[in-house]
Amino acid sequence: MEFACFDIGVWRETLSSYKIHLESLNKPQLPELDDFYRNQLPLLLHQRNPNPYITKPELSRLMQWKLTRGKWRPRLLDFISSLDETLVESASQMAFQSLPDVPKAVSELTVLKGVGPATASAVLAAYAPDIAPFMSDEAMVAALGSSKDYSLKQYILFTEKLQIKAKELSRDGDSFTPSDVERALWSSSVSNKLLTSSLQSDIKANPKRNSKRRRKE
Does residue 6 belong to any structural domain of this protein? Predict the structure, then answer.
């Protein structure tokens, strides 16, 4: 699925396959971590109104989710474990209060060692999925063509594009958030990788059959 696709049915179908593709990665802890991140954590954060914040243990589980669903960088977990719990709570409280000013909210969180714009985006997306999407590599590639720049400037550009796409898709009774767009793009990317891997495995397993097929073409 291309980012430019306007077919709401395609986006809905791709989004609905998110869980299937998540499980296809064969990472035993990932489904449980994803359930925590997408379902449990948002409720915990909003229960703390009018001054919501994230706790250090919750931030640690969020980081585990981020690294398990994406690239594993264990040093980031070490950074989180060394943070002062009071600082985590105060920084996240300031960040949530800064919304919908996304740049300010990200800046409030990145004072925490080990928390860059990508991790900050995951924290904000858990609290306000209708405003701030998670800065995943897969969605970055789909929306911007690259995932090499994790700067705040790049995240703001990414956020704006996903907010616009969410508005485009939210019509005729459908409601999309920027976070829905991110998950659909992630799901599509994983699906494409699985298809490519399957085709490569088929070629290796049946070299003669594929050779005959190419000669006929």
Answer: no
List b or e across 82-95, with b for residues whose CB sees 16 or more CB atoms inside 10 angstroms: ebeeeebbebbbbb
In the chain, the number of structural domains is 1
* 135: Cβ contacts below 8 Å, ≥ 6 apart: 117, 118, 121, 122, 150, 155, 158
Sign of the dihedral through C-alpha 13, 130, 140, 145: positive
Global pTM value:
0.89
Question: In terms of residue numbers, what domain contains 174?
Answer: 25-216
208's tokens: 């003669």
Structure tokens at 202: 């088929």
Question: Running DSSP on this structure, what letter comes out for residue 38?
Answer: I
Tokens at 75, concatenated: 């040093």
Question: What is the rounded CA–CA span in Å between residue 69 and residue 78?
Answer: 18
Confirm whether 207 is domain-assigned.
Answer: yes
133: left (phi over 0), alpha (psi -120 to 50) or beta: beta
Residue 10 lies in a domain: no
Cα–Cα distance measured from residue 35 to residue 29, given in angstroms and rounded to the nearest whole number: 10
Residue 50 forms part of a structural domain: yes
| Cβ-proximal residues to 144 (8 Å cutoff; 6+ apart), any chain | 154, 157, 158, 161
Structure tokens at 69: 């669903």
Tell me the pLDDT tens digit for each residue of 173-206: 889 999 999 999 999 999 998 876 555 555 566 6
